[in-house]
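Feature request, filed as a ticket because there's no other form

It would be nice if the structure record came with a short human-readable summary line next to the tokens. Right now we just get the raw output. Example of a typical job, pasted below so the devs can see what we mean:
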Amino acid sequence: MVSDDPAVRIDYCRQVEIGAVQESAKSIPSAVERGWPTVAELRAYRRPFDEAGIAIIGLEPVKEPVRSWVEDIPEGRQSYELFARHLDAAGEARIPCVTLHPPLDDAESPAEAAEQFRLNCEFYARASERARAAGTKLATHSPWPPAKGLWGAREYQSIFEAVPAPENGMIFCFGCMAMSGDDVRAVLPAFIDRVFFVHVRDVVIHGDGRVDEVFPGTGQVRPDTALARLHELGYRGAIAPEHLPKVFGERRNEISMAWAAGYCRAVLEGLTGGVDEQADRP
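Raw output as currently delivered:
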């Protein structure tokens, strides 16, 4: 995020020609105080983005993830309701998805992992039903940081098989998939109907397990070929560069993001021959 000020972010997007963004409910002070945004607040918040021709394609909740979302006790049901009200408001405000990380992601034994999987599935089943009623979707990112245990193709497939609701989808992160040991291009076909948002990342994975996050096109992921595979499979949704290295002199990744956005745009234009296919650009 290049600034905490939405107006500054809009100006930046105009200059860099970014046409779609994920925004956070934390940018609305009254939503932070309450714990969720109202429909009126989201509509007012997105108005200047709409006027600038910038689509808000995802909403980050005020707080996420929250372990108590899965707890069947009064406090847990209350915390889940705070999350679910984001779905209600996003749907009415015509924001396509609410982004999140899984509520439970730190199992230390096979038995604990099985129980966390069961509880996560119950959460996703309820949340998918609520999202369907609201007119929005769920886009789950892998647990982060990596020490928690990244979700690769196997983990996502397990969740989608257990909760096959079409509203239950993912943020397909090139970096997390590669760091999980999966070939990004090979696993994309299995998830293409679940991909609601894409993080364009590149990494260098060292033999000792260390990972360097690098500019797109300079690591081992080959985002250009991954984007080509997405295009071939018919994906025309939003993409966003993520986890970029710092450039000397910048404050909030404003230089590195412009570099990465230019890289993505060049790849997309190479795929389309410069023809606008109404894709949400980075």
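Something like this underneath would help us a lot:
The radius of gyration is 18 Å.
The chain has a mean pLDDT of 94.
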